[in-house]
Protein backbone atom coordinates (compact mmCIF):
# COMPACT_ATOMS: atom_id res chain seq x y z
CA UNK A 1 0.00 0.00 0.00
CA UNK A 2 0.97 3.65 -0.36
CA UNK A 3 1.82 5.77 2.69
CA UNK A 4 -1.84 5.79 3.69
CA UNK A 5 -5.18 4.46 2.50
CA UNK A 6 -6.26 7.77 1.00
CA UNK A 7 -3.21 7.96 -1.28
CA UNK A 8 -3.73 4.34 -2.27
CA UNK A 9 -7.33 5.04 -3.27
CA UNK A 10 -6.23 8.00 -5.37
CA UNK A 11 -3.99 5.69 -7.40
CA UNK A 12 -6.05 2.52 -7.71
CA UNK A 13 -7.77 1.40 -10.91
CA UNK A 14 -10.22 -0.88 -9.08
CA UNK A 15 -13.80 0.28 -8.50
CA UNK A 16 -14.41 1.65 -5.00
CA UNK A 17 -17.71 1.07 -3.19
CA UNK A 18 -18.99 2.01 0.24
CA UNK A 19 -20.48 -0.42 2.75
CA UNK A 20 -23.00 1.49 4.87
CA UNK A 21 -24.71 4.87 4.94
CA UNK A 22 -25.04 7.63 7.50
CA UNK A 23 -22.60 10.01 9.14
CA UNK A 24 -19.54 7.83 8.58
CA UNK A 25 -20.34 7.45 4.88
CA UNK A 26 -20.81 11.23 4.61
CA UNK A 27 -17.35 11.86 6.06
CA UNK A 28 -15.69 9.26 3.85
CA UNK A 29 -17.47 10.50 0.72
CA UNK A 30 -16.47 14.08 1.50
CA UNK A 31 -12.81 13.10 1.93
CA UNK A 32 -12.81 10.99 -1.24
CA UNK A 33 -14.33 13.96 -3.09
CA UNK A 34 -11.58 16.26 -1.85
CA UNK A 35 -9.05 13.80 -3.20
CA UNK A 36 -10.76 13.27 -6.55
CA UNK A 37 -11.77 9.66 -5.88
CA UNK A 38 -15.11 8.62 -7.37
CA UNK A 39 -17.05 5.70 -5.94
CA UNK A 40 -18.99 3.23 -8.05
CA UNK A 41 -21.71 2.26 -5.62
CA UNK A 42 -23.05 1.94 -2.09
CA UNK A 43 -24.39 -1.21 -0.48
CA UNK A 44 -25.92 -2.02 2.89
CA UNK A 45 -26.41 -5.12 4.99
CA UNK A 46 -29.44 -7.30 4.34
CA UNK A 47 -32.50 -5.66 5.83
CA UNK A 48 -31.12 -2.14 5.34
CA UNK A 49 -31.23 -1.98 1.53
CA UNK A 50 -34.89 -1.15 0.93
CA UNK A 51 -35.81 1.20 -1.91
CA UNK A 52 -33.69 4.24 -1.06
CA UNK A 53 -30.78 6.37 -2.16
CA UNK A 54 -27.84 7.95 -0.34
CA UNK A 55 -26.02 11.00 -1.70
CA UNK A 56 -27.51 10.29 -5.12
CA UNK A 57 -26.53 6.60 -5.20
CA UNK A 58 -29.07 3.78 -5.02
CA UNK A 59 -28.44 1.65 -1.94
CA UNK A 60 -27.77 -1.85 -3.23
CA UNK A 61 -27.07 -5.25 -1.74
CA UNK A 62 -23.52 -6.59 -1.64
CA UNK A 63 -24.55 -9.29 -4.11
CA UNK A 64 -25.82 -6.66 -6.54
CA UNK A 65 -22.56 -4.68 -6.35
CA UNK A 66 -20.52 -7.84 -6.75
CA UNK A 67 -22.50 -8.92 -9.80
CA UNK A 68 -22.18 -5.47 -11.38
CA UNK A 69 -18.53 -4.70 -10.57
CA UNK A 70 -16.81 -7.99 -9.76
CA UNK A 71 -13.46 -7.35 -8.09
CA UNK A 72 -13.71 -4.13 -6.06
CA UNK A 73 -12.45 -2.21 -3.02
CA UNK A 74 -14.97 -2.08 -0.17
CA UNK A 75 -14.83 0.76 2.37
CA UNK A 76 -16.74 0.14 5.61
CA UNK A 77 -18.49 3.31 6.79
CA UNK A 78 -19.91 2.43 10.22
CA UNK A 79 -18.87 0.89 13.51
CA UNK A 80 -20.07 -2.23 15.24
CA UNK A 81 -19.29 -4.74 17.98
CA UNK A 82 -22.09 -7.16 16.99
CA UNK A 83 -21.02 -10.73 16.11
CA UNK A 84 -23.42 -11.02 13.16
CA UNK A 85 -21.96 -7.86 11.62
CA UNK A 86 -18.45 -9.24 12.11
CA UNK A 87 -19.53 -12.43 10.33
CA UNK A 88 -20.64 -10.35 7.36
CA UNK A 89 -17.39 -8.34 7.43
CA UNK A 90 -15.36 -11.55 7.42
CA UNK A 91 -17.39 -12.96 4.54
CA UNK A 92 -17.02 -9.86 2.38
CA UNK A 93 -13.36 -9.29 3.25
CA UNK A 94 -12.68 -12.90 2.24
CA UNK A 95 -13.90 -12.04 -1.27
CA UNK A 96 -12.91 -8.40 -1.74
CA UNK A 97 -10.22 -5.90 -0.80
CA UNK A 98 -11.72 -4.47 2.40
CA UNK A 99 -10.85 -1.44 4.55
CA UNK A 100 -12.44 0.58 7.35
CA UNK A 101 -11.15 4.14 6.80
CA UNK A 102 -10.37 6.05 9.97
CA UNK A 103 -12.34 9.30 10.00
CA UNK A 104 -12.60 11.19 13.30
CA UNK A 105 -15.83 10.93 15.27
CA UNK A 106 -15.26 14.58 16.24
CA UNK A 107 -12.88 17.26 15.05
CA UNK A 108 -11.51 17.83 11.56
CA UNK A 109 -8.03 16.30 11.80
CA UNK A 110 -7.75 13.31 9.48
CA UNK A 111 -5.09 10.78 10.44
CA UNK A 112 -3.33 10.60 7.08
CA UNK A 113 0.43 10.30 6.52
CA UNK A 114 0.93 14.06 6.51
CA UNK A 115 -0.79 14.32 9.92
CA UNK A 116 1.26 11.38 11.22
CA UNK A 117 4.56 12.93 10.12
CA UNK A 118 3.65 16.31 11.62
CA UNK A 119 3.09 14.70 15.03
CA UNK A 120 5.76 12.01 15.03
CA UNK A 121 7.51 13.53 18.04
CA UNK A 122 4.37 13.31 20.18
CA UNK A 123 3.66 9.79 18.91
CA UNK A 124 7.15 8.60 19.82
CA UNK A 125 6.97 10.31 23.20
CA UNK A 126 3.72 8.57 24.13
CA UNK A 127 5.02 5.20 22.97
CA UNK A 128 8.04 5.61 25.23
CA UNK A 129 5.75 6.22 28.23
CA UNK A 130 3.71 3.03 27.87
CA UNK A 131 4.05 0.50 30.67
CA UNK A 132 4.06 -2.90 28.93
CA UNK A 133 4.56 -4.72 25.63
CA UNK A 134 0.83 -5.13 24.98
CA UNK A 135 0.35 -1.36 25.34
CA UNK A 136 3.12 -0.71 22.83
CA UNK A 137 1.66 -3.30 20.45
CA UNK A 138 -1.80 -1.72 20.82
CA UNK A 139 -0.37 1.73 20.18
CA UNK A 140 1.54 0.58 17.08
CA UNK A 141 -1.47 -1.30 15.72
CA UNK A 142 -3.73 1.70 16.35
CA UNK A 143 -1.42 3.98 14.35
CA UNK A 144 -1.13 1.44 11.51
CA UNK A 145 -4.89 0.94 11.42
CA UNK A 146 -5.51 4.68 11.31
CA UNK A 147 -3.13 5.04 8.36
CA UNK A 148 -4.23 1.99 6.38
CA UNK A 149 -7.79 1.15 7.42
CA UNK A 150 -6.66 -2.49 7.54
CA UNK A 151 -8.60 -4.44 10.16
CA UNK A 152 -5.83 -7.01 10.67
CA UNK A 153 -4.07 -4.52 12.94
CA UNK A 154 -7.11 -4.28 15.23
CA UNK A 155 -7.48 -8.06 15.38
CA UNK A 156 -3.79 -8.38 16.25
CA UNK A 157 -4.06 -6.36 19.48
CA UNK A 158 -7.65 -6.72 20.72
CA UNK A 159 -8.34 -8.09 24.20
CA UNK A 160 -11.47 -8.89 26.17
CA UNK A 161 -13.11 -6.36 28.43
CA UNK A 162 -12.25 -8.49 31.46
CA UNK A 163 -8.56 -8.47 30.56
CA UNK A 164 -8.58 -4.70 30.24
CA UNK A 165 -10.59 -4.16 33.42
CA UNK A 166 -8.00 -6.07 35.42
CA UNK A 167 -5.76 -3.00 35.11
CA UNK A 168 -8.05 -0.72 37.10
CA UNK A 169 -9.57 -2.68 39.97
CA UNK A 170 -11.02 -0.10 42.40
CA UNK A 171 -9.88 0.01 46.01
CA UNK A 172 -12.23 -0.96 48.84
CA UNK A 173 -14.78 1.77 49.44
CA UNK A 174 -13.86 3.59 46.24
CA UNK A 175 -16.04 6.21 44.64
CA UNK A 176 -16.75 5.39 41.01
CA UNK A 177 -17.03 8.54 38.85
CA UNK A 178 -18.74 7.65 35.56
CA UNK A 179 -18.28 10.46 33.04
CA UNK A 180 -20.53 9.76 30.07
CA UNK A 181 -22.80 7.40 31.99
CA UNK A 182 -25.23 7.03 29.04
CA UNK A 183 -28.15 4.82 30.12
CA UNK A 184 -26.35 3.31 33.10
CA UNK A 185 -24.71 0.42 31.28
CA UNK A 186 -21.25 1.04 32.74
CA UNK A 187 -22.58 1.84 36.21
CA UNK A 188 -24.31 -1.55 36.16
CA UNK A 189 -21.23 -3.27 34.79
CA UNK A 190 -18.68 -1.89 37.21
CA UNK A 191 -20.84 -2.08 40.35
CA UNK A 192 -21.66 -5.67 39.40
CA UNK A 193 -18.00 -6.55 38.87
CA UNK A 194 -16.68 -4.66 41.87
CA UNK A 195 -18.88 -4.92 44.97
CA UNK A 196 -16.17 -3.04 46.87
CA UNK A 197 -17.29 0.21 45.18
CA UNK A 198 -18.76 2.34 47.97
CA UNK A 199 -20.53 5.09 46.01
CA UNK A 200 -21.14 6.35 42.48
CA UNK A 201 -21.36 9.72 40.77
CA UNK A 202 -22.92 9.30 37.32
CA UNK A 203 -22.68 12.25 34.90
CA UNK A 204 -24.74 12.31 31.71
CA UNK A 205 -25.71 15.42 29.69
CA UNK A 206 -28.45 14.05 27.42
CA UNK A 207 -31.88 14.34 29.05
CA UNK A 208 -33.32 11.14 27.56
CA UNK A 209 -30.25 9.10 28.45
CA UNK A 210 -30.33 10.67 31.92
CA UNK A 211 -33.89 9.42 32.52
CA UNK A 212 -32.89 5.90 31.46
CA UNK A 213 -29.77 6.12 33.64
CA UNK A 214 -31.94 6.88 36.68
CA UNK A 215 -34.43 4.12 35.85
CA UNK A 216 -31.83 1.44 35.12
CA UNK A 217 -29.72 2.04 38.22
CA UNK A 218 -32.38 3.00 40.77
CA UNK A 219 -31.76 -0.21 42.73
CA UNK A 220 -28.08 0.62 43.30
CA UNK A 221 -27.42 2.34 46.64
CA UNK A 222 -25.54 5.63 47.00
CA UNK A 223 -25.65 6.89 43.41
CA UNK A 224 -25.49 10.65 42.79
CA UNK A 225 -26.93 11.63 39.40
CA UNK A 226 -25.61 14.72 37.60
CA UNK A 227 -27.42 15.89 34.46
CA UNK A 228 -24.61 17.99 33.01
CA UNK A 229 -21.81 17.97 30.51
CA UNK A 230 -18.27 17.45 31.82
CA UNK A 231 -15.91 20.21 30.70
CA UNK A 232 -13.10 22.51 31.83
CA UNK A 233 -15.35 24.97 33.67
CA UNK A 234 -18.43 25.10 35.86
CA UNK A 235 -21.48 26.93 34.54
CA UNK A 236 -23.26 26.76 31.21
CA UNK A 237 -22.18 25.58 27.76
CA UNK A 238 -23.96 24.45 24.60
CA UNK A 239 -24.51 20.91 23.34
CA UNK A 240 -25.64 19.47 20.04
CA UNK A 241 -29.13 18.03 20.27
CA UNK A 242 -30.49 14.66 19.13
CA UNK A 243 -27.11 12.97 19.36
CA UNK A 244 -28.17 10.13 21.67
CA UNK A 245 -25.04 8.42 22.86
CA UNK A 246 -22.95 11.03 21.04
CA UNK A 247 -24.08 14.06 23.05
CA UNK A 248 -21.13 16.43 23.12
CA UNK A 249 -20.14 20.08 23.40
CA UNK A 250 -20.96 22.14 20.31
CA UNK A 251 -23.54 24.49 18.84
CA UNK A 252 -27.02 23.74 20.12
CA UNK A 253 -29.00 23.93 23.33
CA UNK A 254 -27.71 25.40 26.58
CA UNK A 255 -26.81 22.85 29.25
CA UNK A 256 -25.12 22.91 32.62
CA UNK A 257 -21.46 21.92 32.73
CA UNK A 258 -19.32 20.72 35.62
CA UNK A 259 -15.70 19.74 36.19
CA UNK A 260 -13.98 16.77 37.76
CA UNK A 261 -12.49 19.13 40.35
CA UNK A 262 -15.95 20.44 41.34
CA UNK A 263 -17.42 16.93 41.60
CA UNK A 264 -14.61 15.56 43.75
CA UNK A 265 -13.75 18.57 45.92
CA UNK A 266 -15.19 17.05 49.12
CA UNK A 267 -14.38 13.39 48.43
CA UNK A 268 -11.92 11.65 50.74
CA UNK A 269 -12.35 8.06 49.42
CA UNK A 270 -10.12 6.55 46.71
CA UNK A 271 -11.55 7.35 43.25
CA UNK A 272 -11.89 5.37 40.02
CA UNK A 273 -12.78 7.47 36.95
CA UNK A 274 -14.22 6.18 33.70
CA UNK A 275 -14.21 8.88 31.01
CA UNK A 276 -15.93 8.40 27.65
CA UNK A 277 -17.31 11.85 26.85
CA UNK A 278 -17.55 12.08 23.08
CA UNK A 279 -14.49 14.17 22.28
CA UNK A 280 -14.56 16.29 25.45
CA UNK A 281 -11.90 14.16 27.15
CA UNK A 282 -9.12 16.76 26.97
CA UNK A 283 -11.38 19.49 28.39
CA UNK A 284 -12.50 17.11 31.12
CA UNK A 285 -8.87 16.43 32.06
CA UNK A 286 -8.16 20.16 32.23
CA UNK A 287 -11.17 20.55 34.50
CA UNK A 288 -9.77 17.84 36.76
CA UNK A 289 -6.14 18.90 36.78
CA UNK A 290 -6.05 19.92 40.46
CA UNK A 291 -7.60 16.70 41.74
CA UNK A 292 -5.57 14.48 39.41
CA UNK A 293 -2.29 16.18 40.34
CA UNK A 294 -3.06 15.93 44.05
CA UNK A 295 -4.76 12.53 44.34
CA UNK A 296 -3.73 10.48 41.28
CA UNK A 297 -7.04 8.59 40.81
CA UNK A 298 -7.18 5.39 38.78
CA UNK A 299 -8.56 6.33 35.35
CA UNK A 300 -9.88 4.63 32.21
CA UNK A 301 -10.09 7.18 29.37
CA UNK A 302 -11.43 6.64 25.84
CA UNK A 303 -9.01 7.78 23.13
CA UNK A 304 -10.82 7.21 19.83
CA UNK A 305 -13.05 10.26 19.32
CA UNK A 306 -10.44 12.64 17.89
CA UNK A 307 -7.45 11.75 15.72
CA UNK A 308 -5.08 13.45 18.15
CA UNK A 309 -6.46 11.73 21.29
CA UNK A 310 -3.77 9.04 21.24
CA UNK A 311 -1.16 11.63 22.22
CA UNK A 312 -2.96 14.68 23.65
CA UNK A 313 -4.66 12.68 26.41
CA UNK A 314 -1.71 10.69 27.77
CA UNK A 315 0.62 13.67 27.51
CA UNK A 316 -1.87 15.86 29.41
CA UNK A 317 -2.11 13.31 32.22
CA UNK A 318 1.66 12.74 32.25
CA UNK A 319 2.20 16.50 32.68
CA UNK A 320 -0.04 16.43 35.76
CA UNK A 321 1.38 13.26 37.30
CA UNK A 322 4.48 11.77 35.66
CA UNK A 323 4.40 8.84 38.09
CA UNK A 324 1.34 7.19 36.51
CA UNK A 325 1.78 3.82 34.83
CA UNK A 326 0.10 4.19 31.41
CA UNK A 327 -1.49 1.23 29.62
CA UNK A 328 -3.41 1.06 26.34
CA UNK A 329 -5.96 -1.59 25.32
CA UNK A 330 -8.30 -2.15 22.38
CA UNK A 331 -11.52 -4.07 22.94
CA UNK A 332 -13.24 -5.92 20.06
CA UNK A 333 -14.69 -3.25 17.79
CA UNK A 334 -14.61 -2.25 14.12
CA UNK A 335 -13.32 0.33 13.34
CA UNK A 336 -10.85 1.21 16.10
CA UNK A 337 -13.40 2.39 18.66
CA UNK A 338 -13.40 1.02 22.20
CA UNK A 339 -9.74 1.90 22.59
CA UNK A 340 -8.70 3.29 25.97
CA UNK A 341 -5.79 4.46 28.05
CA UNK A 342 -5.57 3.19 31.63
CA UNK A 343 -3.77 5.33 34.20
CA UNK A 344 -2.76 3.39 37.28
Features:
single chain; 344 residues; alpha/beta; six-stranded mixed β-sheet
Determine the fraction of residues in helical runs and give it as a percent range.
25-40%
What's the Cα radius of gyration?
21 Å
Class based on secondary structure composition and strand pairing:
alpha/beta
End-to-end CA span: 38 Å
Average predicted local confidence, pLDDT: 94
For the biggest β-sheet, the strand order reads 9-8-7-13-14-16-15
Shape from CA axes? globular
Enumerate how many helices there are, as a single number. Answer: 15
> Could you give the count of β-strands?
16
Strand content: 15-25%
User: Stretches where pLDDT falls below 50 for ≥5 residues?
Assistant: none
| Major sheet details | 7 strands, mixed
Describe this structure in words.
There is one protein chain. The protein has 344 residues and is α/β, with parallel strands linked by helices. 38% of the residues lie in helices and 19% in strands. The protein contains 15 helices and 16 strands. It has a seven-stranded mixed β-sheet, sandwiched between helices. Strand 15 and strand 16 form a beta hairpin. The chain is globular and about 65 Å long. The protein starts with a helix and ends with a strand.
List the helices and strands and how they pair.
Layout: H1 5-11, E1 16-19, H2 23-34, E2 41-43, E3 53-54, E4 57-60, H3 62-69, E5 73-76, H4 83-93, E6 97-99, H5 113-118, H6 120-129, H7 133-148, H8 152-157, H9 161-165, E7 175-179, H10 185-193, E8 199-203, H11 207-216, E9 223-226, E10 229-230, E11 235-239, E12 253-258, H12 260-264, E13 271-275, H13 281-286, H14 289-295, E14 298-302, H15 309-320, E15 326-330, E16 339-343
Parallel strand pairs: 1-2, 1-5, 2-4, 5-6, 7-8, 7-13, 8-9, 10-12, 13-14
Antiparallel strand pairs: 3-4, 11-12, 14-16, 15-16
